[in-house]
Structures are given as structure tokens and as C-alpha cells.
Amino acid sequence: MSLSLSEQGRLAWAVDQAWRGALARLALVWAGLIALFWRDWAAMGHQWWDSSTYNHILMVPAILGWLVTQRLPDLWRLPVAMWRGGLGLMGAALLLWALGALASVAQITQIAAVAMLIAAVPLVLGLRAALGLLFPLAYMGFLVPFGDEAIPLLQTITAKITIALVHISGIPARIDGVFIATPAGLFEVAEACSGVKFLVAMIAFGALAAHVCFVSWGRRAAFMALCVAAPILANGVRAWGTVYVAQYYGAAVAGGVDHIIYGWFFFAAVIAGVIALGWRFFDRAAGAPMLDVGAVMALRLPAMRGISAGACFGALAAMVLAAQGWVMAADRLAAPMPARIALPEVAGWHRVDYAPRHVWEPRAGGADHRLLGRYADARGHEVDVFFALYASQGPGKKAGGFGEGALRPETGWSWQAPGPDVPGAHSDRLLAGGPTERLAQTSYKTGDLVTGSNARLKLANIIDRLLLRRRATMLLILSAEEGGAFRAADSLGAFRASAGPIGDWMDAAAKGL
């Protein structure tokens, strides 16, 4: 049965009206969510604009707009209606936000803020319309700044690639963690040289190119693997080039060349190389539609139970208020604090003046009490002890936050390599000019938990705040300098043996015993 032109016009008008109303409601929900969670969006925007690692994210909104316009002619053919099941997705995003806020992990709250906008699409437009926008919705994940967590691993990988190439090129060199010593000087694979900025940008580019240029999932996976491997390997080559130039033209020239290559040509060359390698394998036909309406309509989906706009907005408002209210209540929690604390006595050890060869003082921002001192025993072992006590954990007072603990940014100390494993502690080797080496072992305690894992600490803090329990958090850093009468690891082992269970010792410090 065919429709007359007038009937087709009325049907098109009805479809347009349905989509216009749905898009207006979606814009209203998005605006409300961005306003209610503005702190998270502002924090993301600050990173997009001010951090060179995340400058590429400024292009993501434009890419999202382009991806949607590629689907518009076919998207209007999909049915649109509010879907009750979307409230479950929104509830999951709000729960994730609450967990992130309770743990004071900004990246989790930022992921959740983006997830809320994504969940609003099936809620307001319906499940089939959301499936028609599946890739643009997934690509919204690149709005979240990520990658800093991989910096230590990337530093290590880059250093290993560099030393291998340095040896192949005939330059005598030795490696110690992320430091490479050559006749031209000591080179550090610093955080800025880890290649993280190019890796995260390449992953975002690779995901877009894999979707637009390929149809085969196998080819997409291979292309993404190339987009991960290429910047890592290329960064190792770049670091080797800096070392190589320094051998013949000096470190100053090498630094200038590295800056030019790193800032202007490196990423463009890597992208060009990846595209050249993948070009012959592109299998999406030119002009092929980005949305297969027939496939979406053929999917067998659960019953689409609708919901009125008023009921939807009311339920959404209630969930948002519950999440934010719970976090506000948890933010007011604070464990009782003693008037003073003191480093406890340790059998066979005595306190001596704290006189490090290179100034070292850990950071414990927001802590209610801090102590730093040095112990020595009769044999000549020396150990530095830093202890901090927190009434609560939150923004500006996170025992395991970035820049907190043994390695403070911009203090002359650099991360060198992981230290030996120690039960209940996280171990790091640090290096400062001189050079001065230090082994630092970091432990956290809350309740009965004693751990060196920042993740386990955050999980315990989340549970406490979810249950509205008032528990103090403790930070202990035991450290020792290398180059004395004993190895740092031996001095720390001797101190731990004398101090007994480290959790009990931390409790004694918190009580001022």
C-alpha cells in the first residue's frame, strides 16, 4: 500500500515534531545535569585548556557533532520516545559519581558526569535512537582526561627502549630505573618524556579512524593495537635520538632539537606513519552510510516501557538529590583528633637530628597532624620517619592523592624505580641532585586495614563514607638514604623488626604514646 504525497508529508511532519520535542527535552536534561555537576565539568575544562596532555580533547566536541551529522538523514527514521529503563542507567551513573565523590577521586566523578549525559539519551530518546547513536555516545568517553596513571609504566618502557637503542648504536651507557648514564651526562626519562600525551591523543584518533575507515572488527582491533604501539615505540626512538645527539653536539643542542621534534613534528609524523600503514586495509566503501537503520530496527529489544516527561524529570531530580545529599553528609564526617601526637619509642633505637643530604619532606596536604624525625641504632642504621594523621579524607586532604606522600613535585626529587616488595607498604626509589638516593616505603592505615595500596585505601574510605562511619586515616613513610654504612633496605628492615607490627606502631603514634 503506497501513501499519497499529502499523507507522506503529514507522516514526516509527525516524525519531525516527535524528534523536535525529544531533542528539546534532551537539551533541557543535559543543561540541568551540567549545571548540577558543574564542578566536575569545570575541572575537566580546566585540564582540556591548561594541560598539554589533554589539549586534544578540545577537538572532541566538534568530532562528536560531525559524527552525529553523518547519521542525521537516517537517524530521523528511528522511533523516538522516553524509555523508563533509562532511569536505571542514570541511577548507575549517579551511584558511580557518589562513589567517586566519597573516595575523592576526581576522575571517577568526571567519568560519571559524562556517563550521565550518555544515559540521558536512551532515557529521553529511547533505546533504538540511542543505538543509532551508539558510537558517538561511546566516543563521549574521550571527554574525560585520562592517562596520568600510566606515566610511571611509560617512563620505564621508554627508558628500556632507549637503553637498548643506545647500546645498539655503540654508546657506552648504564641504566638505573628511569636514569641513563652516558659519557655525555645523566639523562632522565622524566614524566614529561613518558610520551603519555601522544599516546592518549593517538588512542582517541585511532578509535575515530577505526570506526570511520573500517568495517571488519578484526581490522579495527589491529589498527587500534598499532595506534597504541606506534607512539610508545616512537617515543623510545625520540628519547634515544636525544641521547645520541648529546654525544656529539652536547646536551644543550640535544635539548633544543628534542624540544622542536617533540613539540612540532613528532606527533604529526607518527599519525602520518600510522595512516600510511593502515591505508591499504581500509574496507569501508566511500559514501557508505554510518547508520544501518534496518539492522537497528531488526534488533529484538526488551519491551520499551514509556514514561511521562513529568514522572521522568521528577524521578531524575530525586535521584540527583539523593546522590548529592549523601555525599554532603559524608563530607561532614570527621574522626575525633588528639590535641597532639608523638613518634613512639622503638626498642634499641634513639632519636637523632634530622639532617638529610638533600632536603626531603613528604607532603600530606590537609592532614591534621604531621611528624618528621630520624631514628638511629647503636650499629649505625639510620631511618627517617614521616607520619600524618587525617580526621577525614576529601578534596585537598587525600593521603594517597597526586603529589602527596614521598615524592613531591618540583622539589628536586625524581622517581627512579620501584623498590623491593614490603608487606603492607608501597616501595619507591627516589633520586635527587648530588646524586642522593633514597628508598621510601609508604603505608596507609584506616580501621584495621594496613596497606601500601592506594586503591585499597580508597575502597576502605568509600565504604566508611557510604556507611557514614567516622574513621581516621594515617600515612606512614619510612625511608633511608643510600650511601651510608648500610644499604637503605637493610636499615629499614632493622627498624621494622624493632618496631613490631607497623599498624600497632601507627596507632601508638596517633595516640601520642
From TrEMBL:
Locations listed in the record: Cell membrane
Any one Gene Ontology molecular-function term assigned to this protein's record: peptidase activity
Claim: Protease is one of the keywords in the record: yes
Transmembrane segments: 22-41, 81-102, 114-139, 196-214, 221-241, 261-282, 303-327
Mode of membrane association: Multi-pass membrane protein
Domain Methanolan biosynthesis EpsI: 316-501
Primary subcellular site in the record, as a coarse category: membrane
Coiled coil: none
Presence of keyword Lipid metabolism: no
GO cellular component terms, A-Z: plasma membrane
Phylogenetic lineage: Bacteria, Pseudomonadati, Pseudomonadota, Alphaproteobacteria, Sphingomonadales
Protein name (Swiss-Prot/TrEMBL): Exosortase A
GO biological process, one term: proteolysis
Keywords of this entry: Cell membrane, Hydrolase, Membrane, Protease, Transmembrane, Transmembrane helix
Source organism, top-level taxon: Bacteria
NCBIfam families: 8TM_EpsH, EpsI_fam, exo_archaeo, exosort_XrtA
